[in-house]
Amino acid sequence: MSKVLTTTPRQDGFRMPAEWEPHIGCWMLWPERSDNWRNGAKPAQHAFAAVAAAIAQGEPVTVCASPAQYLIAREMLDPAVRVVEMTSNDSWIRDCGPTFVVNDGGQVRGIDWKFNAWGGLAGGLYFPWDQDDLVGEKVIELERDDRYAPDFILEGGSIDVDGEGTLLTTEECLLNPNRNPDKSREQIEQYLKDYLNLKKILWLKKGVYLDETSGHVDNFCRFVAPGEVVLTWTEDRSDPQYEISADALERLKGATDAKGRPLKIHKLVGPKPVLITKEEAAGVDKVAGTLPRESGDRLAASYVNFYIANKVIVMPYFNDAADVPVQQMLAKLFPTRRIIAVPGREILLGGGNIHCITQQEPLGRRVVQMAGAA
Ligand code: KQY
After folding, report:
1. Which of 26, 64, 96, 356 is catalytic?
2. What does the pLDDT read at residue 1?
3. Which residue among 306, 315, 348, 366 is buried most deeply as judged by most CB within 10 Å?
4. Domain residues of the chain, as ranges?
5. pLDDT (tens digit, 9 = 90+) per residue, 52-99?
6. Is 356 a catalytic residue?
7. DSSP 8-state class, residue 67
8. Which residues line ligand 1 (CB under 6 A)?
9. CATH match for 4-362 among 2.60.120.260, 3.30.450.40, 3.75.10.10, 3.40.50.12780
10. 34 CA distance to ligand 1 centroid (A)?
11. Which 3 state secondary structure label does DSSP give 289?
């Protein structure tokens, strides 16, 4: 069993690294629930398999699948991808999985946050979430890492760090009373600072329009380098997204990071509004307690929801005129990585995108402890 630590990463000299720092690999969960994924989750499984294969070109990938889905996942996934059996309620490991922290000696530890399916019984997206809440602990134990277990609800998609002491988040999510209702803004900041070893928190007001996660920052605004962020943007002033992005732009323009640097802000113009079709909505089972999918509903489509692997960036495309310009912009922002665009629509139909279904594990410098070794 991995040791449960009662100290904080900050006390122990551990910090959350930026996503562009070296990874030992990437973790994913296999989708199967038919009340979130249409047509028995088969189109989503193909989309997840494409994401896993793309990331595997840049670093090792592990996909966790339920006992019922193990053989199917093994058959559909690239042979380079490792498949392990693990039960979960759905497949959003960014949010229910661990956050890894490292120290200067290259040791890695895991943070096992509490998870309540984006709001619990006060607006959460499904019930129950008990198996999702165990994913962090299970992954950390598989990696034989020591574990911090704060009494704090946090989804990995609600935060983004530069690895140098700065964190981006949104008030819409972290101050939502359905996450940590007994904690003030100051107490929430203190948890983030203590567990991720931060000096500065940059608060944006909201995330992408109609994002069902209550505005996760990983779909809206992310660090791409120290002192540089990408921000979901639209030039259409009649789009409700305009006001949200413009507010974020003003806040970011007036901000400096933990090292006192002003931020360079790259606008990433989103695709035209993506709406659920009648056929897509009809393919999702309606189950009490799960957020329904209705024909005509607008989805929170954003190119910011990409994954930074060691050698590649895996970004979603939406068959939109902006796909290629965004790919070109990411190529400029990440000159040492190849940009792989994969279809984003099926994952988006489930409520998120590539970043939401992945979780990086930092490389660190692993010390293998062998029983009986001198
Ligand atoms: O991180 C995410 N975007 C997760 C969304 C969960 C959607 C469940 N329907």
Report:
1. 356
2. 78
3. 306
4. 4-362
5. 999 999 899 999 999 999 999 999 999 999 999 999 999 999 999 999
6. yes
7. G
8. 36, 92, 94-95, 125, 157, 212-213, 216, 291, 350-352, 356
9. 3.75.10.10
10. 14
11. coil
